[in-house]
Amino acid sequence: MPKSPHCYFLVTGSIGDMQYWDGNRWVVVPVGYSGQVLTLNANNIPTWIGPKVNIGDLFQGGIVAYLLGPNDFGYDPNTQHGLIVAPMDQSSSTIWGCTGTTIFGADGSALGTGNQNTIDIISGCAVAGIAARICGDLVLNGYNDWYLPSIDELNILSQNRSLIGGFPSANYWSSTEINNNQAWCQFLGGGQQGIASKDTNLFHVRAIRSF
Question: Which of 11, 23, 130, 144 has its CA 20 to 30 A from that of 177?
Answer without folding.
Answer: 144
